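Known limitations

Files may contain more than one protein. Parsers should not assume a single record per file. Below, a two-record file is shown to illustrate correct handling: read the sequence, read the token line, then continue until end of file.
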Amino acid sequence: MKILRMLASGLVMLLVLGLVNFYIGQHLWYLLETWLPGISAAVYWPVFLLIAFAYMIGMVPWPKAVKPAARLFKVIGSYYLACMEFAIIVLPLTDLLYWVLGLMGVQRTAFTAEAGAALVVLLAVFLIWGSRNAWSTVVRNHPIQIGKSAGTSTPLTIAVASDLHLGNIVGNRHLRRMVAELNRMQPDLILLAGDVLDDSIEPFIRNGMSEEMRKLQARHGVYAVLGNHEYYGGSIKQYTELMDSIGIKVLQDEVVEAAGLYIVGRKDKTAESMEAAGRKSVEALLDGLDLSRPVIMMDHQPTGFGIAAQAGVDVLLSGHTHRGQIAPNHWITRRLFELDWGYLRKDKLHVVVSSGYGTWGPPIRLASRSELIKLEVILEGSKHYSEEPVHSNPVLI
């Protein structure tokens, strides 16, 4: 029954994608007919559909001989996904404008070339600005005060990165910038809050990305948790062993002590549907811990804030949402999650949700930025500690 539901969902998704792309393709056909009279529909439609479904074609597990072509298709398809979202927003508005002009007696064929040129210019601006937001990273500073002691009189610096999505699109160049920026913080801890991989582990291994990640330096260690995309890739054992070999511990419903803190790493919520044992509750993970000491928890998907607060977690770090990545998707993530990006104080719990460092699909961001998080954790007993809650707005660097 479960397989039938998945099959039905897949067919519905293909049908919707087919209808959406036919709508986009028809509008592009009208424009090309104006710009290139005599263009052949027999040539246009196969080429358009190949590009429209290129991302899905690239995701197919092709034989090794055709994998380079599949990777190219995935890159082309990723950019088309951004163009598709742009078209879904602007084409209905264009149709509405032409409908109003039609009521005024203006023929639909009028101004087609001019309107098309204007949309192409807008698309170019969208892609250029979106690329800038995706590849140009900001560091957000969050000073956080915890009324517990970890045996240190100085604030702890914790560098956080989530949603790297390392693969065929986000590669070593972007990874090198992240490693350099995190190391520049001279952190006590580095925490990776899930989705280090973009599904498949193959490009991570082929491009030697683990060797770049090996360069991450923190006084008390580097820790990571799984995200939903590690589960989708299906190579969790291979991934965790590879990360362990370079000194990065992937916590799977585990707790470690470091820098006088407890670092709690939850399995991703996806484990509840993809693993028979599911994942442990927050209460079970914290059972037996000395809760007079600070507790920092990583949980890739930003859910269960109230449960974490009641259990005694002091800081909860998440990612997953990308803040919608491309506007107006952030209106959706804002409704789906109690906090889809930024900072929230819930009772004594500090929640920080990152918009992520990498991207899924197109390397394009609109109304979101590639970001890294620098936490300055001020503990009781520090000369910086005060009785008043401390948290300022993030500072962009």
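...continuing to the second record:
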Amino acid sequence: MSTPVVEKKNNKSFLELIKTNAFRAAILSTVFMGFGQFYNRQFVKGLLYSIGWLVTLVFYSQPFLWAMWGLRTLGETPQIRERGRVVFEGHHSIFLMIEGIIALLIAVIILCIYISSVRDAYKVGKKRDSGLVPYTFKQSLQNSWQNGFAYILLTPTIFFTLFLTVLPLIFSIMIAFTNYSAPNYLPPRNLVDWVGFQTFINLFNMESWSRTFYGVFTWTIIWAVASTFTTFFLGFFYAVLIETKGVRFKKMWRSIFILPWAIPAFVMILIMRNIFNGQFGPINKYINNLIDHYPFLAEWGLSAIPFFSDPTWAKLTLIGVNMWFGFPFWMILMSGVMTGIDKEQYEAAEIDGANAWQKFRRITFPIVMFSTSPLLIMSFANNFNNFNMIYLFTEGRPSNTDYNFAGSTDILISWMYKMTLENSQFAVASAVGLLIFIVVAIFSVWNFSKTRAFKEEDMMR
């Protein structure tokens, strides 16, 4: 007997709901933008919404349908040439893709405005149900300015972000699911097709691509780990050394060691490349002069060092030069952290009989790691994509005949550069870029969540 009573009560509440001004205004705005505002007697606002929606339906419907067709098909007719002249322009697959993405982003903006109109009609209708008088158009503008000032200022930034950041990001992701590459799929002479996950399958399974990908990916991981930790601990070492009691002229030592970081990296990398040059670099030139004056050194195995022609030497040189560039940052950072450590902690440790190593292990090291571990993770992500160091110093050399469009010292980001700007392998490069994002994002998020600084901040919230 209780079930019919509940159903009756629910039916009654639903009937009450549909009689409310809030419900009716929301439904009317859902049917046609602005009708809910007319129902709420906000005629100017309703007129603006309705005109905007009419203009959208009349002038944007057809371009939107065309853009969706282009995004779905990427064109049907390639460019036609006769005797070297263009007879028919045809469809440009990449332009169609970009137009489709832009149309989708505009549609998202229109949808947000549509939802806001429904929400506005519902809120005003709810006020009417409470016995309140709706705002006039002038009062609505004043209220929006007072309560939504921050959102008004953020709106241009949102639009710029949407079309200057989100648009290229979506475009680069979509390219990974096409066959956009030389020599057979370059518009406008050829159309580009959607191939799904085939590019990723080829990257992992096709021998010519997989051998390159696994080799470059392995070296990228080694490079990121080695370059991050060598600079970190070298900077830590010098910071501890400078902060040691008895070391005089601390400011002078800091100033000397900061110079490699203060000088523009672009210039210094090129200078370093000349220093390690195998033909005219001063290091090998000095070794050759020694051999000329003392031939027996050659018999003992001394010879010019193949800094850029031997893969192992090239990788070691890269890591060594990167240490020289990177350690000053960590040294200054850690010096600042150690300067801020309360001296009473060390005094208490000395009273308890702790020696220098124990004070370092129990006080200095934990505090420095707590302060710098988030930056250490960011440094790893930065080195994972350290294009400047790789490309300017070695250009990916030495060449590797087993790799496609990559050298022995290329990392994923420099390999992407060569595939796009030098070899027009856009689909594979886009797939590699997407994998880089996934790897770096997962590593960074997971490690950030494990740091003590992140946990303590989360607990404070």
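Parsers that stop after the first record will miss the second one. For reference, the second record is described as follows. The first strand starts at residue 80 and ends at 82.
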